[in-house]
Amino acid sequence: EYMGTRLLLASRSMSSTQWEAVLNDPAVRVIYESLKDPDGEAYFPIELRHFFAHFIESQPWGSINTEDPSHAANARMYCSLFFNELTRKIQELTVSAAADSFVLKRCLEEMDLVLKKRYATNPAALVRVIQTVLQQERDVLVSGRAASYFHGGGGNSFSSTSYGTDATKLNDASLNAEIERLQEHTQSAEMKLQELLQQQEFLILQHQEWDDINSALQGMAGAKLNPAQRAQLAKQARAKQELIAHEGSQIMLARRTILELHGAALDHATKVLAVLLEKLQQWQSAQRKKTMPDDYLAEVLSVMHLQFEALATVYYNIRQQLRQHEVQREQLRCGDEHETPTLDQLFEAVHLQLETLVRASFVVVTQPPQVMKTASKFTATVRILVGGRFSMGMSFTEVLCQIINEEQAQHLTKHNRLANNAGELLNAKQMMAADSSHTLQASFNNLTLKKIRRKASKAPKKEDVVTEEKFALLFTTSFTIGDLTYKLWALSVPVVAIVHIVQTMKASATVFWDVSFGKTQRVPWDVPSGVRWPKFAAGLAHYWQLIHGAPLTAAALNFLGSKILGPGEDTVSWSRFNREPMPGRNYSFWEWFLAICDL
């Protein structure tokens, strides 16, 4: 587990290598899972591959034939160089002052012992292992890029799990590479369509010439022909008919090929889209939980902006090419019986994927304050990530901001429509605008909560009704791509609306519980009624670090645990946390903890 964390952190500073390209692919993890057992058939842990990536890839392992005795000296030499490199790294860690050097040094020492025990007297075996893993990594790279035209079910490197849940993986370069592959497909398909159009125009001309020959044979002019002339024209007609049949079959084959390529590309694009949406969810989770610095989140969003635009362009180009394919088919008025249902399926697939991408691209970039007081100004910003490239020349539409409660949010997410809102906001309309970098967004700089409507609550006290009820800002707009118009909406993080400053402390408890223990993807805004102590302690430590820049110590956490947990207890309830007073006190644990934070 420790080494896995090291791999993750170190991967962000590596220069470009084959290993960097495949590091986050689940298929590669499977390869090295079978090599981690010291008693297994082969031994080569993933940590060795990671920390010595540059050295491994700079040696000519492929030139060594392990079955040829004359290559034995080379096998010994390069294995000896690898052992020396490992020893040098261990010695470097011995004198290092870094906090984690000791643990890393011990891990590498254990691997060094096993490696030398197994391969010091059999270097050819180690060479074979390294040759095998390097080739398997290359195979993963090739299959992940689906060859040139996505045949063979490529894209196996993509799945929503390949990015895990850690926000530090959000800038994975392989996603850009796969989108570029899809762009290459649309460019290739466009060229094939142009070639197909030329073939069709040639075929139409051949048809015309064939008709002219037949007219000459069958009309009045044909009656004046002598037998030799008639035979010559008949021969030309047969040759022209054969040419037309051949060209027609070639056109049908080209059409089927283009449709097959579009189908394979859309299958692959589905996997790319899944990864991109997972990446966006990770970004939204990091934004909500404040687990990453704001400047890093802005950097990730800028990258995603380009990726969303690029993928949207791929979908739109495929859609336009399908329409062009349809026009060319009508122009020639020929086709096989399977072409129409295939086209219908492709249109449906591209529309669904493009709509999914566009709807997800409407995001809240600047969140409102999560404790929101009536009559106080606040700001919020929304952005359409696919907007820049498609905003040129468009008439920008209005963005409306409303506030809704939990029940209304649940209805919205289930039925994709809003029945009502829960209050009134001032300055709640803004126009979408594109800046110099073609970022399409709307900024609300003077939002004000004028009135809030509350629903009945089971909270025991009236104050708890106010400070425990959650709302959110709902942003709605429309966006047009070509002849397609989409109705978009986006929800802010949950907020608590208060009417007096004295309610801030209890409201902040609701926010803390929601941020710390509520999932990003959930029924709005479901939270557990109680959490186990380790999870609760992690939430306190994170909150403390946000305020003071350093985590709570283990001793501090143990002390806090003694204040909220009774003997033998390991679960903290919401009531114990915020509603009930601490033993012998007239304030809750949260009030006490906040007072400590302010010291």
Structural class label: alpha+beta
Largest sheet: 5 strands, antiparallel
CA distance, first residue to last residue: 36 Å
Radius of gyration: 33 Å
The tally of helices reads 21
How much β-strand is present in the residues?
A: 5-15%
Explain what this protein looks like in three dimensions.
- The protein is of the alpha+beta class and about 600 residues long.
- It is built from 21 helices and 13 strands.
- The chain has helices at about 1-10, 20, 25-35, 45-50, 55, 70-95, 100-120, 125-145, 175-220, 220-225, 225-290, 295-330, 340-360, 385-390, 405-415, 460-470, 505-515, 535-550, 555-565, 575-580, 590-599, and strands at about 360-365, 370-375, 375-385, 400-405, 425, 430, 435, 440-450, 470-480, 485-490, 495-500, 530, 570-575.
- A hairpin with a 2-residue loop joins strand 9 (about 470-480) and strand 10.
- The longest helix is centred in the middle third of the chain and has 63 residues, at about 225-290.
- The chain starts with a helix and ends with a helix.
- The relative contact order is 0.06.
